[in-house]
Design a protein that fits this description.
The chain folds into 2 domains: 139 residues, Aspartate Aminotransferase, domain 1 (Alpha-Beta Complex), CATH 3.90.1150.10; 255 residues, Aspartate Aminotransferase, domain 2 (3-Layer(aba) Sandwich). 37% of the residues lie in helices and 15% in strands. The radius of gyration is 22 Å and the shape is globular. Bound molecules: pyridoxal-5'-phosphate (PLP). The site of pyridoxal-5'-phosphate (PLP) has 15 residues, from helix 4 and helix 7.
């Protein structure tokens, strides 16, 4: 008799997006033909930048020739892409990252989900609350938690991101081994200052802990004071891994390309306390379990670092940020407290009453879809997330409806 992994039985079904879909279906059935505006999704809406499309096409044509054909590539990614990433995303900002510390992959979701494999099963894990659910569920699957009770898993440390701390979790007053951080944040849209990240790096160094820093929304940062990478903080190389993605940066959610940076001096420790480079462990995992991102996709990704590509990516993110500014100004004008939307495509709004009640009100009375904050964790109750991923005209129309409803 094959026994299933018992830890999967602890997982909570993610009712969030199926629940939203059900309520939308019910609304549409009751209101046929009513124009619904979706501001709930965490997926981009604009097409790929032309520079990426051209590079993508050219690489496919190369693959069609005998000289240009390529089979398996290096699992870690082609040098042309690893070099472009190290140079443009890190060294240009004064962050020391070498090309062979960059591991190209097919998604930051997979990488943030897989990285916990390198850490002992009895490691103490801290996650933000509200949270990107991947961090939690992958640790549940690996058996690092107890049961789900009163909205939280036993054995996980939850780092509250609330209005009182500007949605940047405070340094815990206890020991933890691994800390997931995400800035600019999904779902809150909050960002962390240099000083706040420096405090986390200091904590990790003191505790010989590991920071797993998710910077999937880095391309939305506009405030020149904000750090774009954890490696802009001194001492971070020894204690931090960084996840990036072309998904939100350049519209690659359906194309798939991302990368993880593992500095060679970043360590975990064996049972005798001897340091083991995570770079070697991740290289081993990656080469054993992954066979590389396709050549045309890596060429398409590398095109964002050309002069043309850079401008087009800026254009994409500027477009969403214009939507975000509109949302933020209308919501604030209506007297709600909110965060995000300035260096992020998400606006996190404190609402009266519970998240689902507000969701239902927007859906039923304005035909606008948002995401109830309670779906992201206990600290999300009383909030909703509005996403800027839509056409500007649709966002304007939605905000007009909200003004009419809530003024
Ligand atoms: C969208 C997103 C990612 C990126 O995921 P991909 O698998 O690269 O598409 C990573 N982290 C967070 C928090 C996200 O919202």
């Amino acid at each position: 008799m094959v026994r299933c992994n018992p830890h999967y039985g602890k997982l909570q079904s993610s009712y969030l997006f199926s629940d939203i879909a059900k309520r939308i279906a019910k609304f549409q059935e009751a209101n046929p033909g009513k124009d619904l505006i979706r501001l709930g999704i965490g997926d981009v809406t604009l097409p790929l930048p032309p520079a990426c499309v051209a590079a993508f096409h050219a690489a496919v044509d190369e693959m069609a020739t005998e000289e240009g054909f390529r089979g398996y590539g290096p699992e870690q990614g082609y040098d042309f892409l690893r070099e472009a990433i190290a140079e443009n995303d890190f060294r240009a900002r004064g962050a020391e990252v070498a090309p062979d510390e960059v591991f190209v992959s097919d998604g930051a979701k997979c990488d943030t989900g897989n990285f916990q494999e390198l850490v002992a099963t009895d490691a103490v894990i801290a996650v933000p609350d509200p949270v990107y659910p991947v961090y939690v569920d992958t640790n549940v699957m690996a058996g690092r938690t107890g049961a789900f009770k009163d909205g939280r898993y036993e054995g996980l440390v939850y780092l509250q991101s609330v209005r009182g701390n500007d949605y940047v979790p405070a340094i815990p007053d206890r020991h933890v081994d691994v800390v997931y951080l995400c800035f600019p944040n999904n779902p809150t849209g909050a960002t962390a200052t240099r000083a706040q990240l420096a405090a986390w790096v200091a904590y990790a160094r003191e505790h010989k802990a590991l920071l797993l820093f998710d910077a999937a929304y880095e391309a939305f940062i506009r405030d020149p004071e904000l750090p774009h990478s954890i490696y802009e903080i001194e001492g971070a190389r020894e204690v931090a891994v960084e996840f990036r993605s072309f998904s939100k940066t350049a519209g690659f959610t359906g194309t798939r390309c991302a990368f993880t940076v593992v500095p060679k001096d970043c360590m975990a420790y064996d049972a005798d306390g001897r340091p083991q480079p995570l770079h070697s462990l991740w290289n081993r995992r990656h080469t054993t379990k992954f066979n590389g991102v396709s050549y045309p996709v890596q060429r398409a990704a590398a095109a964002i670092y050309t002069g043309e590509g850079r401008g087009q990516v800026r254009g994409l993110t500027d477009y969403y940020l214009k939507n975000a500014r509109k949302i933020r100004s209308v919501i604030s004008g209506l007297g709600f407290h909110c965060v995000g939307g300035d260096n992020s495509p998400y606006i996190w709004i404190q609402v009266d009453g519970d998240s689902w009640a507000f969701f239902d009100r927007l859906l039923n009375e304005a035909a606008v879809v948002c995401t109830p904050g309670s779906g992201f964790g206990a600290c999300g109750e009383g909030y909703v997330r509005i996403s800027a991923f839509n056409q500007y005209e649709r966002v304007e129309e939605a905000m007009g409806r909200l003004q009419a409803l809530l003024q």
